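thread: overnight batch results

M.L. [08:02]
morning all. the overnight job finished for the chain we discussed friday. pasting input first so we're all looking at the same thing
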Amino acid sequence: MMKSNVMKSARQAAGLSVQSEASVATILLVEDEPVTRASMVARLTRLGYRVLEAENGRVGLDVARREHPDLLIVDWMMPEMDGPTLCEAVRRDPLLKSSQLLLMTGQDQPAQIAEGLSRGADDFLSKSASKQEIIARVLAGLRTSRLVRELETTGNHLESSLLLLKRSQEETEADLQAAASFIRSQLPSQGSLAHGIVLSWEYQPSLLLGGDLFGVMAIDEDNLALYILDASGHGVAAALRSVSLMTFLRVDNILQLIGSYDPGKVLFEANRRFPLSADGEYFTLWVGQLHLPTGSLLYASAGHAGALLSSAQSPSRWLTRSSFPLGFDPSAQFACDRLFLKPADRLFLLSDGIYEVPSSNGEVWGRVRFQEVIDAGRQTSLSATIASSFSAARCWQQAQQFSDDAAIMGLELTESRERTFI
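M.L. [08:03]
and the structure it wrote out:
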């Protein structure tokens, strides 16, 4: 009874219960001396462990690879394959990396201990060790093995979770790329929009999906509908809301709803159908109608100040009128203004993200500097002028990516007075 209590106390001192350890632990004893092996097997079996035997290192390695023991107790001096060589072989096997190695030796000299540790052993056990020391070292080895295997299991779970997360991210990225491609496909084609009208634009959303969109559509053979919209916020939610407004602004839908593409009426109906969201999200919107034979531009704005007229005969000017964004006042009316575009005039519709870029010290580039770039580009092509604006904005902020969606759509009237759709 006293001997049993001593063993139990030693095991409890090592921090492990007899029942829990005995129910899971497998020990492989590799010892060429039959008497020593039988004595050690009997001792470990009485403690409740599953004990496997091997008479030399080569047999022991085969058993270890088949059974994956928690602990290997290995004699140093053996035929076929000695203990340190077996330790090296175990450490090279990835399937045995959690197994602990307890090297037994009759000569526990510092040089020998250093060699054994360097060749893969985790601990040493003298053949003259007391029963209490044997139990304590076995328990320590099993405890380490269990912790390593728990970490290994946790690592496998993490690796599996990370793989699932990566796949999910790849699927999400693919969906976002497809959505971005769809939205970009809805933007107008660049080049000759009609005889006498050239269209060019550049667009860089701050994220993969943007909420600042624009469009040019034929109302009939004499009239064009123009618009640019800006959704507050960024990302997927803003992009989805913008696509819904973009769909609303289609010519066939507007003509069916209100019978014309009068900018003031379009804004009134949009204001009614797109109220301020529960999260405070809203749109700004500029809408115009261009009569091609006369160059008459009728336009109105709901909180959107991004329209600039560049003329060869006079300095460029902003087409602005104070107004609320969509959804702030359900009964709001939106007044229209009219002007006449002349040959060589350029009309730029843009989002505020192109000129509200900060420098490294926080100074905003601003509308005045943007306007100066537009005026300086009168002698270059429309597309080159727009590209220069983006380059100047990037240079100012010293970054390629914009913090807000950046968009510029430009229309240029050529010298021809006869303008019909191609």
